[in-house]
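*** Fold description ***
***
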Amino acid sequence: MAKVSKHPQDFCNPALNENKIVDQCEKLQLQSAAITKYVEEVLPRKKHSTVSVASCAREVLIQRLIFVRNVCENEEQQLLEKAHAEEERANQSILTQRAHWTEA
């Protein structure tokens, strides 16, 4: 940033003021060029990197969800088998009771 002169004669010197303005314009142009370069070169790489990381995270999440689904399906199958076995046991018990009542 350009220093502001504290000498009153500097304010009256148009050439000095013009030089300060030119210096400021040059600094702004350099900043603008640096920003443009950053936007054109750095941001796309960062965006690509971010997209890659997000894609990997998505794949990990999908794999975890598939694993959870498989575990749930296996648990469901085991519970259905247990329920079916219990139903069979209950039916056998009912048949046995009926047979005993018939004999009695």
About this structure: The chain has one domain: 14-103.
